[in-house]
Amino acid sequence: QVCPGLRTPQVPIWLCSLCGRHGVLFSTDSLLLTCWRAERVFHLHFYSGQQEQTKPTQLTIDTHSHHWEEDLREDPSSPGKRHPPVEMVIRTKWAGATVSWNGTDPFF
Question: How far apart are CA 40 and CA 23, in angstroms?
Answer without folding.
Answer: 24
